[in-house]
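Input structure tokens:
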């Protein structure tokens, strides 16, 4: 579904990705992990063409290169994106935020309606007339995921969806990921550590200083503590 090979990308003249390789098969949940500032968000931004310029390598989505596509065309082709800063419209209500995505016409994929995303996140339904800006971080996170679902993604990119959330709320976000996986949505989830999403991840990619340094199964990851020591612990 997604195949990234030898990706290099830069903000202006500053290259921050020097060789990212990543693959996602249909229905898979892949976890992208690494310390602060290693390039997890930049990898996602490269996929959806947000701020960063792709300078080398390629990003293929269903066999088609995204490297030079316009951001809204990437979304239209079926890539949903939940950025780490969430970007909900603070002065709009929950319902108004959910009316922002344009209806998708593609025939070949699961379509989501506002009613369905309310079933997934009942709390959003309760707060549907509340302004997004006054909601908690967890609620805004759910709203951001809900809004991305309304673009009817085949592949959903979640950038540190648990950042800053209380453990109980973080667990609810994992529940939603499990549910979406059951619905057949492929996902890339970035995290600082694997613990939060080990319940739903199929495979893991470890990034260090802009390069993919390890990839394998969740079991393989835990079987080798050296990976954590070398690439994830703060030194
Ligand atoms: N808009 C930007 N302009 C210039 N440099 C940037 C920009 N965003 C990120 N960077 C730099 O790119 C590098 C990779 O950052 P990135 O945000 O991709 O890391 P990350 O793995 O997502 O980190 P974190 O865990 O803190 O979210 C860092 O050195 C960062 O300072
Ligand atoms: Mg980040």
């Amino acid at each position: 579904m997604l195949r990234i090979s030898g990706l290099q990308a830069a903000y202006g003249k500053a290259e921050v990705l020097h060789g990212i390789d990543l693959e996602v098969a249909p229905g898979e949940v892949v976890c992208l992990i690494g310390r602060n500032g290693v390039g997890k968000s930049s990898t996602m931004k490269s996929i959806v063409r947000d701020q960063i310029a792709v300078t080398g390598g390629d990003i293929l989505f269903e066999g088609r290169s995204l490297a030079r596509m316009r951001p809204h065309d990437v979304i239209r082709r079926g890539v949903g994106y939940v950025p780490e800063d969430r970007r909900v419209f603070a002065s709009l209500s929950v319902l108004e935020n959910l009316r922002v995505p344009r209806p998708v016409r593609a025939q070949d994929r699961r379509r989501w309606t506002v009613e369905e995303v309310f079933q997934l996140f009942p709390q959003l339904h309760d707060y549907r007339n509340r302004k997004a800006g006054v909601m908690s971080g967890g609620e805004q996170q759910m709203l951001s995921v809900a809004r991305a679902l309304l673009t009817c993604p085949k592949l959903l990119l979640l950038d540190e969806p648990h950042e800053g959330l209380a453990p109980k709320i973080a667990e609810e976000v994992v529940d939603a990921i499990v549910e979406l996986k059951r619905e057949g949505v492929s996902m890339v989830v970035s995290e600082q550590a694997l613990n939060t999403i080990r319940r739903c991840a199929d495979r893991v990619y470890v990034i260090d200083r802009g390069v993919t340094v390890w990839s394998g199964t969740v079991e393989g990851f835990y079987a080798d503590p050296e990976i954590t020591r070398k690439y994830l612990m703060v030194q």
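The chain has one domain: 2-231. The mean pLDDT is 92.
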